[in-house]
Design goal:
Its EC number is 2.6.1.11. By secondary structure, this protein is α/β, with parallel strands linked by helices. The chain contains 14 helices and 15 strands. The model has no long low-confidence stretch (mean pLDDT 96).
């Protein structure tokens, strides 16, 4: 039975490490793309738990999968395998280029595994001097010390002492800089096929093609961080499938479990063979509960109708945001793809993305930011058209309150 203790926002300041600054309201219940706080106030969810709640809150298929598995088996560790993990791995390999799967608990862990595999492969095949990792400024790959160093935002990695070495950051979409820098000492290029935290930046076709060509030329591996873009978010099951190139290693998490923590690294048999027994592991990775839920999520998200629906909903968002902009002249452009969209603020509104987020909250709408100048939307992939319309109406009112 749940405790009767009254939980209020002040308790956060009393008991939690202060590395977050959460909103005042505390959600207590969710259904579909609606959320309610302890006071009974209703919110429309355009945030999706940062691109996680791909089927909304408490989707019946997820609830059923979790309930059913919770009465069978919760945990085994990697000393044994389990049925949900094997079913999910099989399904993921059928949906993409990969032959092999490593399960983790988060995007950072999936990326950590990807980076370790790339380094191990290069050392095994070419020798220890082939160890450089190229990544991109404003990129984000997680909060472990290795992944946060590879991520291209120094504010997140500075102040923790010496960083893992041989990591180079170049400008995203700068083909010339990449051509000039890459060498046979490069072991991998790690990139998001659409930068999320860095401001919802899409890659140019030339850039993506050049990255793949240069990796092939210099025997470097291409790692796609699809933690935020994967599992239907862009309208393809994985974003690489809409870009015309194939990575060597792919990481996925966030919406893979629809809200239940799970991550995965996907790769080829040839590369996977370099992670022999004992070289990497995870106590919780491949947890039966997480894998059962993720299988239910993947079954729905991979359906062609769901993916087509993402593109339909993108059009509704773009149309609605354009109408809002025609009234208030606040956005310089709408960026992104599918249901990972960013409304970039124009010169007059620089630095005010969080103001928009807070004003939206006052109107009963949950949105995100991607840096100080971009309002980010990452709602459920199956959000109803009515919820989109009502949410955009709340955003209109929020912006009106800031203009007044």
């Amino acid at each position: 039975m749940a405790s009767e203790m009254k939980v209020e926002r002040e308790l956060f300041d009393e008991v939690m490490v202060p590395c977050y600054s959460p909103m005042d309201m505390i959600p207590v219940k969710g259904e579909g793309s609606r959320v309610w706080d302890g006071e009974g106030n209703e919110y429309i969810d355009f945030a999706g738990g940062i691109a996680v709640s791909c089927l909304g809150h408490c989707h019946p298929a997820m609830v059923e999968a979790l309930t059913e598995q919770s009465q069978k088996l919760w945990h085994l560790s990697n000393v044994m395998t389990n049925e949900p993990a094997l079913r999910l791995a099989k399904k993921l390999t059928e949906l993409c280029f990969a032959d092999k799967v490593f399960f983790a608990n988060s995007g950072a862990e999936a990326n950590e595994a990807a980076l370790k595999l790339a380094r191990r492969y290069a050392a095994d095949v070419y020798g220890p001097e082939k160890s450089e990792i190229i990544a991109f400024k404003q990129g984000f790959h997680g909060r472990t010390f290795f992944t946060v160093t590879v991520g291209g935002q120094e504010a997140y990695s500075d102040g923790f002492g010496p960083k893992p070495g041989n990591v180079t950051h170049l400008e995203y979409n700068n083909v010339d800089a990449l051509r000039e820098h890459i060498s046979d000492r490069t072991c991998a290029i790690m990139m998001e096929p659409l930068q999320g935290e860095g401001g919802i930046i899409s890659p140019s076709e030339e850039f993506v093609q050049t990255v793949r060509e240069l990796c092939d030329k210099h025997n470097a591996l291409l790692i796609f961080d699809e933690v935020q873009t994967g599992n239907g978010r862009t309208g393809d099951f994985y974003a690489y499938q809409g870009l015309g190139i194939t990575p060597d290693i792919l990481s996925t998490a966030k919406s893979l479990g629809g809200g239940f923590p799970i991550g995965a690294m996907l790769t080829t048999t040839e590369l996977a063979n370099h992670l022999k027994v004992g070289t990497h592991g995870s106590t919780y990775g491949g947890n039966p509960l997480a894998c059962a839920v993720a299988e239910a999520v993947v079954n729905i998200v991979s359906d062609p109708q769901t993916l087509a629906g993402v593109k339909e909903r993108e059009a509704l968002f773009r149309d609605g945001l354009s109408k809002i902009n025609s009234k208030y002249q606040i956005f310089s452009e709408i960026r992104g793809k599918g249901l990972l969209l960013g409304a970039a603020l124009n010169e007059q509104w620089q630095g005010k993305a969080r103001d928009v987020l807070l004003a939206a909250g006052e109107q009963g709408l949950m949105v995100l930011v991607a840096g100080p100048n971009v309002v980010r939307f990452a709602p459920s992939l199956v959000i109803s058209k009515q919820d989109i319309e009502q949410g955009l109406d709340k955003l209109d009112k929020a912006i009106a309150s800031l203009v007044a």
